[in-house]
C-alpha cells in the first residue's frame, strides 16, 4: 500500500477506515475525538463504543463510521505522557501496529491517521 501525506480534516477524508485517538473509557471529550463523534453521529457512535468498553493504552478497537465518509473507525488509546521513560514510545508504537492490524483484518486499503 502506498504511503501518502495529506492535509485535511480527518472527518472529511473518504477512506475505508479512519484512526481516532480515543479515550480509554467509552466517552468523548474535546479535540479530534469530539470532532469524530460529532461528524459520525455522537449518539450512535457512543452506543457502539459502549459495547466495546474500556480500551487499554496501545490497543485498538473498531466501530462502524456511521455518517463519516469511511466504513470504519479504528479507536486507539495513546500513551499518557510522563517523561518519555515510562513506556510511552512503546505504547505509541503499539497504537500504530494494532491499528494497522485491525485495518488489515478489515481488508482496508486506505487508513488516515491523525
Summary tags:
single chain, 114 residues, alpha+beta, three-stranded mixed sheet, 3 strands, 34% helix
Explained architecture:
- The protein has 114 residues and is α+β, with helices and mostly antiparallel strands.
- The chain is 34% helix and 17% strand.
- It has 3 helices and 3 strands; from the N terminus they run E-H-H-E-E-H.
- The protein has helices at 31-40, 42-52, 88-105, and strands at residues 15-21, 60-64, 70-76.
- A 3-stranded mixed β-sheet has the order 1-3-2.
- Helix 1 packs across helix 2.
- It is globular.
- The chain starts with 14 loop residues before the first strand and ends in a 9-residue tail after the last helix.
- The mean pLDDT is 94.
Structural class: alpha+beta
Could you tell me the number of beta strands?
Answer: 3
Give the topology string: H per helix, E per strand.
Answer: EHHEEH
Overall helicity: 25-40%
Can you give the mean pLDDT?
94
Oligomer: single chain
Shape: globular
What is the makeup of the main sheet? 3 strands, mixed
What would a concise description of this structure say?
With 114 residues, the protein is of the alpha+beta class. The chain has three helices and three strands; from the N terminus they run βααββα.
SSE order and pairing:
Layout lengths: L14 E7 L9 H10 L1 H11 L7 E5 L5 E7 L11 H18 L9
Parallel strand pairs: 1-3
Antiparallel strand pairs: 2-3
